[in-house]
């Protein structure tokens, strides 16, 4: 007994000698423990205890630390469902602190007083719920700051001028509500990453930022100047005069028009009953639903090659030619990452959808024809059939049937009429079962293709008159330009492409998992809007945080009615979605397993042991979110 006690005392002495500053009130350990206490829901930091030192030379002993020479130079507390207060005054006592990341957590309220951390080089606050205006001086004095990431929060107001520091290398503020003009950046020679997309910014882009790609500024309707379109004259007096003149002209034209209509009504009443969208198919394209672009989608001259011939790939559809489409009553449906879409109503009354593609690969005419015939030969009640196509080297048209009930995305996220209910649970279950059946068919028809679908998302799940799902934009990876596919197609936002630029047959399973989570939560995967690589970890992180903290019904869409006695089956679908979203593709479910589990679901519980789902562990269900790499997280602490 005495020997054991002596050994224990000796070990304790050695431990104390190995961390001579540990007992100091200003030690990293004491500071970090004080910081931990300021956080709520800090279960992920359970190994932050005063019985061990935070660092051993360059090796961290506590979760989320980055160490150098026995001191903490970085905190990387990502995807931990953390809330509470980020105690900046406490962190400021960490004299070696150079990098911070709190990405994918649940912090809210105004931005912390980060300018007290004057030695900080990298700050990552993206994917939280921070809100409000950022003070002009929020980043004043942070002369060492090189990386600043504030994306996907709820910040508003003007971009603070103190943000435009000369040494900045990366700046990411997309997906907020920043408004007003972009401040001048005095020196952007070191700035290599910039993303201000999807805000409310306006005015001319500063010349110092014109070197960046247009994707850095998209989604700001008021911005202009290189690399976007040129700015129009802003002379308010001229604009006022023009408005007055136009108003007078319109008024006179209206009076003349009414008189003309009255005089002609008895002679040719049918001439004035055409739909206001007639000829829109010939005259307009669209960047978004309801928006028209100046450039016509195409004209008879543009489509004159090969005598304007449409090639039909199905024998069970009405035959028509390109001129029939050009003469048809049509309306703009919208524009996606592939091209603009139009609904064309033929003289016979049949409705077709025409999609215009400009980013297809330079596939030869014969190869393209062969592949379109392959797509046209597909026949499954959960696939939107390809009816015909038009080939031209510069662009192509694909003609499909029209789905009368729009897309799943419009039902989940679009504005409904007052009193119009959302999709109920039986309908959503029917939809996801149909999606799985359609994917199973594609997997069978394309056994050697890595991505049988490749672009699976809610806007590409259309609904027929019975709300049966129809997959669209499927199996197009082989005919889309690779660089365009990597920027826009959903499959290329998967973890495996994000990490190692590769895709597998499990990549479509990842997209299926995201679709399932979107279907049952009613939340939109915001990262689908981001060009290039993206992991959709915003939706995944939210689901994980809600379920992991304490199981409640908060994860399910409040508009999903008809859930009585169906909670257990809904939980099963949630589990399937999470298993399809496993970050590691090797551990992710394969499609066959996922499809079988989906088809086993019922509208109502059948002797379900709900205890199986009452406590959720992210590891059990295959969810993990990609942490930043060391290069993304911080710069060298040297100097």
Give the helices and strands, then pairings.
Layout: H1 2-18, H2 28-37, E1 39-40, E2 55-56, E3 59-60, E4 65-68, E5 71-76, E6 83-84, H3 88-91, E7 99-101, E8 108-109, E9 122-124, E10 129-133, E11 147-149, E12 154-157, E13 170-172, E14 177-180, E15 193-195, E16 200-204, E17 222-224, H4 236-264, H5 280-283, E18 311-312, H6 322-327, E19 329-335, E20 340-345, E21 351-357, H7 365-377, E22 386-391, E23 396-401, H8 408-413, H9 425-445, E24 461-463, E25 469-471, H10 482-488, H11 495-500, H12 507-521, H13 537-549, H14 567-580, H15 591-599, H16 611-614, H17 630-633
Parallel strand pairs: 5-7, 7-9, 8-10, 9-11, 10-12, 11-13, 12-14, 13-15, 14-16, 16-17
Antiparallel strand pairs: 1-6, 2-3, 4-5, 18-22, 19-20, 20-21, 21-23, 22-23, 24-25
């Amino acid at each position: 007994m005495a020997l054991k006690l002596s050994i224990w005392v000796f070990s304790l002495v050695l431990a104390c000698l190995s961390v001579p500053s540990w007992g100091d009130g200003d030690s990293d350990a004491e500071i970090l423990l004080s910081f931990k206490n300021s956080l709520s829901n800090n279960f992920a930091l359970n190994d932050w205890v005063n019985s061990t030192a935070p660092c051993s030379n360059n090796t961290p002993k506590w979760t989320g630390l980055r160490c150098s020479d026995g001191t903490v130079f970085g905190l990387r507390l990502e995807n931990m469902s953390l809330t509470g207060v980020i105690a900046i005054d406490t962190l400021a006592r960490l004299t070696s602190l150079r990098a911070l990341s709190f990405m994918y957590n649940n912090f809210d309220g105004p931005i912390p007083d980060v300018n007290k951390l004057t030695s900080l080089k990298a700050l990552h606050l993206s994917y939280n719920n921070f809100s409000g205006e950022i003070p002009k001086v929020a980043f004043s004095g942070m002369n060492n700051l090189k990386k600043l990431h504030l994306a996907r929060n709820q910040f508003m107001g003007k971009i603070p001028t103190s943000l435009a520091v000369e040494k900045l290398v990366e700046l990411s503020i997309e997906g907020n509500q920043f408004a007003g003009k972009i401040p001048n950046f005095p020196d952007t020679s070191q700035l290599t990453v910039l993303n201000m997309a999807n805000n409310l910014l306006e005015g001319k882009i500063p010349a110092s930022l014109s070197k960046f790609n247009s994707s850095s500024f998209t989604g700001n309707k008021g911005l202009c100047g290189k690399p976007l379109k040129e700015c129009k004259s802003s002379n308010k007096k001229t604009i006022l005069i023009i408005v007055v003149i136009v108003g007078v002209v319109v008024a006179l034209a209206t009076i003349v028009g009414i008189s003309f209509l009255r005089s002609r009504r008895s002679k040719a009443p049918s001439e004035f009953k055409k739909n206001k969208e007639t000829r829109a198919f010939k005259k307009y394209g669209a960047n978004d639903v309801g928006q028209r672009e100046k450039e016509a989608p195409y004209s008879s001259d543009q489509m004159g090659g090969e005598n304007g011939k449409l090639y039909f790939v199905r024998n069970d559809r009405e035959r028509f030619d390109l001129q029939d489409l050009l003469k048809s009553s049509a309306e703009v449906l919208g524009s996606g990452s592939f091209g603009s879409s139009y609904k064309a109503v033929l003289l016979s009354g049949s409705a077709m959808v025409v999609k215009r593609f400009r980013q297809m690969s330079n596939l030869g005419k014969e190869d393209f024809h062969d592949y379109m015939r392959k797509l046209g030969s597909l026949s499954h009640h959960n696939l939107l059939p390809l009816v015909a196509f038009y080939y031209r080297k510069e662009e192509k048209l694909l003609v499909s049937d029209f789905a009368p009930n729009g897309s799943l995305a419009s039902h989940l996220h679009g504005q409904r009429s007052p009193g119009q209910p959302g999709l109920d649970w039986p309908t959503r279950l029917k939809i996801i079962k149909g999606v799985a059946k359609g994917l199973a068919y594609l997997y069978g028809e394309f056994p050697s293709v890595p991505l049988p679908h490749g672009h699976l998302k809610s806007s590409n799940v259309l609904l027929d008159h019975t709300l049966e799902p129809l997959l669209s934009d499927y199996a197009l990876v082989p005919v889309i330009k690779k660089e365009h596919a990597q920027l826009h197609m959903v499959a290329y936002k998967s973890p495996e492409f994000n990490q190692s630029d590769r895709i597998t047959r499990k990549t479509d399973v990842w997209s299926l998992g995201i679709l399932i989570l979107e279907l049952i939560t009613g939340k939109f995967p915001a990262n689908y809007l981001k060009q290039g690589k993206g992991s959709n970890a915003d939706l995944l992180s939210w689901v994980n945080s809600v379920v992991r903290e304490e199981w409640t019904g908060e994860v399910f869409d409040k508009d999903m009615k008809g859930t009585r006695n169906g909670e257990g089956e809904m939980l099963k679908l949630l589990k399937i979605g999470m298993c399809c979203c496993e970050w590691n593709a090797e551990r992710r479910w394969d499609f066959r397993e996922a499809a079988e589990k989906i088809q086993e679901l019922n509208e109502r519980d059948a002797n379900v042991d709900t205890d199986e789902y009452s406590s959720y562990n992210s590891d059990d269900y295959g969810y993990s979110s990609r942490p930043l790499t060391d290069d993304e997280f911080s710069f060298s602490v040297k100097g």
